[in-house]
Design goal:
Length: 467
């Protein structure tokens, strides 16, 4: 599908809003499917997911259709049993067949509990899941529990001595006993040691691996693990709140079936751990959109960092400055990704949706709303490729939950009411208790000249890429 008119340089400018032609991709998705057992079109019922656009901040969440199932006449969204009807064995078999097309959502209470306890994201996992559940989105997904990744699985990327040391910490009550050794593994400052870190690493890795397995099995075209997305961890060390690089492990798993995997990183920080792991590969292309300025962690991801050796040209970095807003972010990212898709021809996609670029985040960098993340994700989903969606940063818990609930709705092809539904953490969404995230007053330091230079430089690197 030609999304943009490539014959027109003005049309393809990253600084212009998406054209009417491009917008139609998003607009088509606003025709939400009718679900069995939920055919009431009374728009006054605010207890269910609304089908009108009046309650939307972002007017066009995308609909997801599994192309394989649709060719067999199965609507992957039509997966809700009629109320009040008991299931017999035939109905259960039919339900299993219908469920096969739904997006996969990785969840277990054990996973949530261990993520809740981690520094910097205390209770975040619970807030995200509670809001998704309160909006009634679980019924539109396959809820799949993770497994604990084995040492063998984690050492598919990480060094054995590092994983062994994490396991050793889990057996010790005196954390200070190994303080000196911990430093050599990066377990200090932003990655403090604790005896639960091995279980946490095993569960988060296992969650992303299970999501990847579901894509390999053809169980769905989209799989989500909001507890994953830890992109800074290196082979031998922890880094930047990341103890284990579940993204690299998941990509390696997906490479067993898919020859070319595209990784997209929307976190405000550069995805250095993932880039470093694949910078010499021509089969994994990494695209990172991040803040890049002196003193900002991790300090890598410059515009001219394009990979090495056989991977030259398969690394794309989009370095931005403070104050980036939706109006420039979405067109720039989508136009770059359009060209990436055209040249690299990926067979599968992994997208890290770190929400620390949102307005109001303690990182105090970009000035984005949930709309920017939603439209970028919509753009990826219209490719209809096996897609793994992961979390990452996001240190304003309520805003992160708002954003990822919105993205979950995008994946499910649903529209959410603006009003936050009642849930365990309802009081955290004050004072307005609404889903939309508003812009802050942060000045946008990204000039039109600078953005045009970034775009021209990135596009100019594509001749190096051989599909």
């Amino acid at each position: 599908m030609d999304v943009f008119d490539l014959s027109s340089q003005e049309e393809f400018s990253p600084l212009k809003p998406l054209t009417k032609r491009a917008r139609r991709i998003f607009d088509k998705a606003s025709d939400i499917a009718v679900y069995p057992g939920n055919q009431n079109t009374d728009t006054g019922d605010t207890d269910t997911l609304t089908k009108t656009s009046e309650n939307l901040h972002d007017s066009n969440p995308a609909g997801f259709v599994n192309s394989e199932n649709s060719s067999r006449g199965i609507n992957p969204h039509s997966c809700i049993d009629e109320l009040g009807v008991k299931e017999n064995s035939e109905m259960k078999d039919e339900k299993l067949e219908r469920d096969c097309g739904k997006p996969v959502y990785i969840y277990s209470q054990e996973l949530i509990q261990h993520c809740d306890a981690m520094p910097k994201i205390i209770k975040r996992a619970s807030m995200v899941h509670s809001l998704i559940e309160a909006y009634g989105l679980l019924q539109f997904m396959q809820v799949i529990p993770p497994h604990r990744a084995s040492d063998q699985e984690m050492t598919g990327f990480h060094a054995k001595d590092y994983i062994d040391f994490l396991a050793l910490l889990s057996k010790q009550s005196d954390e200070e006993k190994y303080e000196k050794e911990s430093e050599q593994y990066g377990l200090t400052y932003d990655c403090p040691i604790n005896r639960h870190v091995y279980t946490y690493a095993s569960l988060t890795s296992g969650a992303s691996l299970r999501a990847a397995e579901c894509l390999l099995e053809g169980r769905s075209q989209v799989a989500v693990n909001w507890c994953g997305g830890w992109h800074h961890a290196k082979r031998h060390t922890a880094s930047g709140f990341c103890y284990v690089n579940d993204i690299v492990l998941a990509i390696l798993k997906m490479r067993k079936k898919f020859e070319r995997v595209l990784y997209i990183d929307l976190d405000v920080h550069h995805g250095d751990g993932v880039e470093e792991a694949f910078c010499t590969s021509s089969r994994v292309m990494t695209v990172s959109v991040h803040k890049h300025s002196p003193g900002f962690f991790p300090g890598s991801g410059g515009l001219n960092d394009t990979g090495m050796g056989k991977g030259k040209g398969c690394t794309v970095n989009i370095p931005l400055l403070d104050g980036m807003r939706d109006e420039e972010f979405v067109p720039l990212v989508c136009r770059v990704l359009h060209k990436v898709h055209e040249v690299f021809v990926p067979q599968a996609v992994v997208c890290q949706c770190g929400a620390d670029g949102l307005s109001g985040d303690p990182m105090d960098s970009f000035n984005l709303t949930h709309t920017a993340y939603g439209r970028c994700l919509q753009f990826l989903l219209q490719w209809k490729l096996p897609t793994l969606v992961l979390g990452g940063g996001g240190y304003h818990n309520a805003n992160t939950a708002r954003c990822w609930a919105h993205l979950t709705a995008v994946i499910c092809g649903r529209k959410l009411p603006q009003e936050i539904p009642d849930n365990k953490y309802f009081m955290s969404y004050g004072p307005d208790y609404e889903l939309p995230i508003s812009y802050g007053n942060r000045k946008n330091m990204n000039t039109k000249v600078a953005l045009q230079k970034i775009y021209n430089t990135v596009i100019g690197s594509y001749p190096h890429v051989e599909p």
